[in-house]
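agent> Task received from the user: take the single chain below, predict its 3D structure, and emit structure tokens. No templates, no multimer pairing.
agent> Plan: (1) validate residues, (2) run structure prediction, (3) serialize to tokens, (4) report one or two observations.
agent> Step 1 OK, no nonstandard residues flagged.
tool_call: predict_structure(input=
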Amino acid sequence: MEKFLNKMTIAIGIVLVILSLILLGYLGFLTIYEYKPNQFLYITTENNQNEVVPLETPLTITTLNLGFGAYEPEFSYFFEDGEMTQAKNLDTIIDNLSMSLDAVLGTRPDIVLVQEVDSRATRSHYTSQISMIDRVLSSHSSSYTPIFVQKWLAYPFDDMHGITNSGTLTLTSHYISESLRVALPSSEVSWPMNIVSSVDPALTIHRMPTEGDRELVVIHLHLLDYSGGVDRTLFIQMLEVLEEIIMEEYSMKGNYVIVGGDFGYILENIVTDEEVSNHTANKLLDLYEFKWLIDTSKPTTVIDDKFYITSGFLVSRNVDVYSIKTIDTGLEFSKGNPVSMTFELD
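)
tool_result: status=success, residues=346
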């Protein structure tokens, strides 16, 4: 009996050692191949158009969080305390993407900002959503910025998350002279959790020449952070980076500035949250410099079965805004409702 127990102990020990080596090897694999972009990274613009941005002409910009085509009313995502790691099926992806684009195109946009666009990711059934969108908007300049890149997440064990390649996609009927990815602060998470939830929050600065001597600077952001969520402290840290950029562009260079996308933070709280307001009142909330544009009549997303506004725009005062409108889709086929703003450059 004693010999049998000794053999069992040795066998269990060997199994545990093997499992430990496999786990360490896997974590080593994720660490070696972790996406680590530089603080500043120039992004290529595909199919770049020739037309410069006109002055004194109404233009429309529309933003949408696509949610990688998975978000039907019953979808609950694993990284958002849900149960599902991927979309229901390929048909769901195609249908949701098609209906989302119809909603966006219904606003007749000159500039389109799309968040959570996947490219050959497991969760979106390996669809190339960049190509799918580019085919529909074939007469637009197209610039894609990676945000969430992961080689293979072998969890949960019964339905692994797999490969992730996701980011933001900016499209415009005008010429983009330069696109620059700027890394943003993220939650401080220790190894190995930092490689498991390996989102790299960033904004992209797109420069578009105008008919005048100033540029239209469109800053596309998605303040996504699955590690700890975009809480008040993290949001302020991200705003500090944004503040420096937009003040340089507007106050020092005199450019037109539009910041748009999914801020990952409840925008209604900006003017009521004392800590955020105190930090930003002298710059971001000063109506003589910049102004927030949100449609308070409709939500843009749902979090924990509650409706909120997280998408909108922040614009410099030399941008004349005519309207801001959230398109109510009932959140039937995307993570967010499209938000559309019509404006004009002096």
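agent> Step 4: summary for the user.
Residues 2-32 form the longest helix (31 residues).
agent> Done.
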